[in-house]
Amino acid sequence: MTVLTEHPAPGGAPAGGPGRPAEPPEPVGRPELLVDPALHATGDPHGIWRWMREHAPVHRHEEGDLPAFWSLTRYEDIRAVYRDPATFSSAHGVLLRPLALGEDPGAGQTLALTDPPRHKQLRGLMADWFSTRAVRGLEDFVRDAVRDALARAVERGTCDAVHDVAARISLYTIARIIGVPREDQEALFRWTDEAFLAHRSLAAHHGFMGYFIDLMDRRAAEPADDLLSSLVHGTVDGEPLTEEEILLNCENLVGATENGRLALAAGLLALLEHPAELARLRADRALLPAAGEEILRWTSSATHSMRTATRPVEIRGRRIEAGDRVVVWVPSGNRDEDVFPDPYRFDVGRTPNRHLALAAGEHFCIGSTLARAQLRLLLTEVLDTGIGLEPSGPAVRLRSIHVAGPESIPLRVTPPRRPRPAA
Ligand code: HEM
């Protein structure tokens, strides 16, 4: 019986499965290539990271279009940086950004780009919307989004798993949490899709920002039971947030769902590329939680996080000065052979699996429970219905140094082998 149609990687291409090589890749001693988006689209960043973990775990990159920065590639170093926000500040940006663009407009204003103690208060305004309880309350909504997306794909007989399935599930859910009315969610989907595909900031998207200015005004006049109202009517240090802070935080939350979509889509792809693991999961559904964690580790959709050192600090004998930028390469930490036995193996039963895909410490992904639930619900639906999903062409990887994963996964879709019982 075919569930996801079991199929090897299309065309033997590296496809969208980040870290695709079954064998550890050949060492490549050229860390400077890491800032080239083309490497992440068509090359083998894992080969470089593997070499760096062994030979240059604390590596200095000189200034070019990007500022100078330090690269960390070992699990323990990445985790330590995440867990020490006093030494490694997020307030000047958490992503590498060309010098010509200046500082990130969200610096010091969005959740991701603030330091304690302000960060804690800001997170407090949003945390309830992402709690286990809140996510449980959203499960029916997510399941419906999954079923709608799959039903449409079946109807057409084909789909792009990124655009038609994963992106929709991810975006509709955050829209609902923020408080975007159902009738506006399609427009929001269009704007985010445009921005993500063009690798442009949502903050520069006039349609998107104009819409949120209007919605913010409406929630100021009349609060509703949604996250936007919590931001509009909440306070940090006894002061209300500025309009700019509210808007940038909405943009940050919607932007963060790019990771959500990538985890879902790359998760499907990982299973298609590993038929034996798919068969294991199908035979033993108790593996689902472990499979979800392995998908997060394997796909590691957040490629890097950046921090700025607040004081001089030494790591493995290299001195990092106050003001220096430090970049942690998350997929590298998640393949660290000192922590993960057989790290280049996709193993749906892997335990323990203390990956760093969702970061660690103060800035641990606020959407983590939601992302995990979405993954579980998507996989459950696909496995339960036995819908046939089979690659109809090579998956294409994103050209980005910020997020990793598939830009598109063309699939042929065949109807479920048995209709779902009527509710
Ligand atoms: C449901 C979708 C998601 C939403 C709404 C979301 C939202 C967020 C937000 C708002 C933050 C900042 C938290 C803070 O500073 O306190 C964050 C951090 C983070 N998220 Fe997520 N996220 C989602 C899914 C994911 C996924 C699937 C991944 C990776 C697999 C991911 C990886 C991360 C990482 C690495 C950080 C730390 C960033 C940093 O501080 O440098 N997120 N997320």
From TrEMBL:
InterPro entries reported in the protein's UniProt record: Cyt_P450 (IPR001128), Cyt_P450_B (IPR002397), Cyt_P450_sf (IPR036396)
Pfam families to which the protein is assigned, alphabetical: p450
Taxonomic superkingdom: Bacteria
SUPFAM superfamilies in UniProt: Cytochrome P450
Region (Disordered): 1-32
Classification via PANTHER family: BIOTIN BIOSYNTHESIS CYTOCHROME P450, P450, PUTATIVE (EUROFUNG)-RELATED
Family: Belongs to the cytochrome P450 family.
Descriptive protein name: Cytochrome P450
Organism: Streptomyces chilikensis
